[in-house]
Design goal:
Helix content is 54%, strand content 11%. It is built from nine helices and five strands.
Length: 192
Amino acid sequence: NYLKKILIFIMNIDVFTNYLYNIYMELKDFKVFVCVPGVGKTFLASQNPNFVDLDSERAVYKYGLEGKSQLELEKEKYNRGEVVRKDSTDYVMKRLHECISQNKIVLLAPNPKIVNKLVEEKIPYCYVYHSLDCIDEYKERMRNRGNEENFISEMLGEHIIHEFYKNSQQDQRPALKIELQKGQFLSDLFKN
């Protein structure tokens, strides 16, 4: 009975490894990833120079937050102040094309204006979102990175998250969609 449990455990690891490998093979050709908050866009870009977090860049540009630390940026997400540059969508699209030409992988948030631009320009993208059973985990991730409770409630509150999840599943615009499960981060998709 104990040996049977060990074999089942090993088989599950093998199935998961094959699952990750298959995802990696699908992902290797994508240059643009649209990812919900808390999946690890900023972390991945800070650890791997092949990735560019244009979501963070956009916020810095739009609100004139140059010179702020990452912790300060996270704490101020709910109250960033006045918009100082109103062309942030154009800025992101320009940077996106620069990054792609440099063979970089672009990480974005699901900002409707930017996603619409991707669709309009026929730029294929992979959409990464979390499953509903991960909500408590994502709230904790956001707390750990310094986000305020008001921001967390706005992003993951009961009143919005179920509708957001349903829309994520039904959205047909992404070339590929990946639903992260408990304990998974964006960086897990790129481990080979």
